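Render glucose-6-phosphate 1-epimerase in 3D.
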Amino acid sequence: LTTDQSSGQKYVVLKSAEGTTAEIFLHGAHVTSWKTVSGEEVLFVSKQAVYKPPKAIRGGIPVCFPQFGGFGPLSQHGFARNSEFAVTDSAADSVTLSLTPSKDQLQLFPHPFELKVKVDVGNDVLEQTLTATNTGSKAFELTAALHTYFSISSIDKARVDGLSGVDYLDSLQDKRRLTENGASVRFGGEVDRIYLATPSRLEVVDEGRGRAVVVEKQGFPDAVVWNPWVDKAAGMGDFGDDEYKEMVCLEPAVAGSGPVTLQPGATWTAKQTLSLRQL
Ligand code: TA6
């Protein structure tokens, strides 16, 4: 465990045999860095990010649980991303973090659970697995997402591939349902869409860097695509006015397709595997 000097928060550093590294803060079980073997940072974190409660770290991979967005009774994106996790297992290239809701959180969400977040690094690969167990006596519904911020050379050179022909809910049009008719999703303004029942393999392509991040997901039927653009960027205190030009969010999610119902004693698991492909 390492302590971040400026925030005093603890984080874990992972390193694969080949030299791929990752950093995960106990606050929110939040991945804040994934660097390739050659030392290139793949994720985006705002220079104005706040690394401690009550803020979720602006960037990296916020764990949205037990709720994504407004899809449930809690405040935006649930409380896991603002909670301190415990390390329950660790190795040089792998860590498992665990959260059980506090008394206060159980006031808000009266369903006991255990959430495990496991992060593994391999040769230019990052794998992240969520496992939630209903430890209570009543079934409950959950929505979730891995709200991943990818670093991009410049937003006009970014695109998301794999969503052509897929329906989405447009959060900028009151969740109106539309169909993606472009070969790729590009960014010429604010984009905030929940793609439904999506393919398991998507790509965030950076034409400026000549490479794509391949996102392979299991257990997440939906995928959220987000760029705040100028006005929303200006409205976020923990995000630079120009930082929308250097990031794209692609978020494997359980959201618009409907919640998961977790029976007492049952376990839900979902994962994303991130890897790189040269163009
Ligand atoms: O990524 C989709 C989204 O729900 C957007 O609507 C925007 O609110 C974004 O998440 C960031 O949310 P946050 O609560 O982290 O500021």
